[in-house]
Amino acid sequence: KDKENNNNQNQNKDKEESQEDNKEKSDQKKEEQKNKDEKEKQKRVAKFQGNKKIRLAVCNLKTAGEGIDLFAANATLTLEIMWNPAIHKQFEARVHRIGQKANKVFAYYGIGVNTIMEEKAKWIDKKQKHASLVMDGIVVDKSLTKLLKEAEKES
C-alpha cells in the first residue's frame, strides 16, 4: 500500500510539473506573439506616417489608443463606442500630437440614428460633462448620486 501511495504521489507530482511546464510554455508563446504583434503594429504605423499615398488607417479604439502616434492624420472616424469616455479621448489624442501638421484635428463618430449606439453616445456625453464639471472644480459639493439623478432628469 505504501508503495502504491508513493507511486500515486509521484504521478501527481509529475502531472503538476507537466502542467506548470505547459503553462510556462503557453505564457512564453503568448508573450512572443504579443511582441510580434506590437512590432507589426509599429511597422504599419510607420508606413502610414511616412507614405502620403496612404490616406486611411483602420484601427480598433483600444489598440490604436495607446502606444502609437498618428500625427500624419487630421481626422479620426470611430465606428465603435466604448463606455469609458477616456478611451475616446486617448484615441483622439493619437492624432493630435506634437509633430501634427494640420492646424485642426477632427473626430467623427459613426452612430446610427435611433439605435442603442445613439443612446450609449448620449449617456457617455453626459458622463463626460459631469466628469469635466468635477475635474474643473465646478461641482465639488454634489454627491455622485445627485449627479446621476440630475443626468436621469436630463434624459
Beta-strand content bin? 5-15%
Helical fraction equals: 55-70%
Class derived from helix and strand content: mainly alpha
Beginning-to-end CA distance, first to last residue = 73 Å
> In terms of quaternary structure, what is this?
single chain
Kindly provide the radius of gyration, computed on alpha-carbon positions and rounded to a whole number of angstroms: 25 Å
On the 0-100 scale, what is the average pLDDT? 80
Which H/E pattern describes the elements? HHEHEHH
Sequence stretches where pLDDT stays below 50 over 5 or more residues = none
Structure overview:
The protein is mainly alpha-helical and 155 residues long. Helix content is 61%, strand content 5%. The protein has 5 helices and 2 strands; from the N terminus they run H-H-E-H-E-H-H. The chain has helices spanning 2-50, 61-64, 85-95, 116-135, 144-154; strands at residues 75-78, 106-109. The protein has a two-stranded parallel ribbon with strand order 1-2. Strand 1 (75-78), helix 3 and strand 2 (106-109) form a beta-alpha-beta unit. It is flat and about 80 Å long. The termini are far apart. The mean pLDDT is 80.
Question: What are the salient characteristics of this protein?
Answer:
155 residues; two-stranded parallel sheet; mainly alpha
In short:
With 155 residues, the chain is mainly alpha-helical. The chain is built from 5 helices and 2 strands; from the N terminus they run ααβαβαα. The protein has a two-stranded parallel sheet.
SSE order and pairing:
Layout (H helix, E strand, L loop, with lengths): L1 H49 L10 H4 L10 E4 L6 H11 L10 E4 L6 H20 L8 H11 L1
Parallel strand pairs: 1-2
